[in-house]
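Can't paste images in this forum, so I'm doing it all in text. The chain is below; anyone willing to post the predicted structure tokens underneath?
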Amino acid sequence: MKHAYFFGYGSLVNRDTHAFAEAHTARLSGWKRIWRHTSLRPVAYLTVVPDADSEIDGLIAAVPGDDWAALDERERAYTRVPAAHQVTHTLTHQPEIAVYSIPDGAHGQPTETHPALLSYIDVVVQGYLREFGEEGARAFFDTTDGWDTPVLDDRADPVYPRHRILSPDERAFVSDELARRDIRLIRR
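Text version of the structure:
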């Protein structure tokens, strides 16, 4: 791909989790964000699935040297899917853009054995707060399906390898949004 970019819709929205310097806010149409589990990982992660009526905000970022190897390794549970025709952005050129998605049939429903991590949610929401403000972070919650997923409260001892420390206001925002949706936190 020439001028390769990826569309990030989860932890890749948080610029502190990667070194992709050339990143820009963008919108992806025709895909819906959802919680899923895959046998390639012990916990649930976000993925996107085709949905003609959905739009989600995120970041596009240039892949240095159009070299996908490191990003493919980071996103090894996913398949890279061309999506340039579905991404709205402010770039003056039309780059190739891919989105990562867990292939249909390769994922299942999250369970208490395979929960989402609060440390992962914290990172994602921190990214949305910084890029899109509180309204955009609430839209992240509203445009994500599968919030019946159990969430492991691992804030005190984060399991997510790229976890970040949230400010008290960011932590309160995440906790309030989870409570507003009656999301079940579990402890081990």
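The domain at 4-182 is CATH 3.10.490.10 (Hypothetical upf0131 protein ytfp). Residues 29 and 55 are 4 Å apart (CA to CA).
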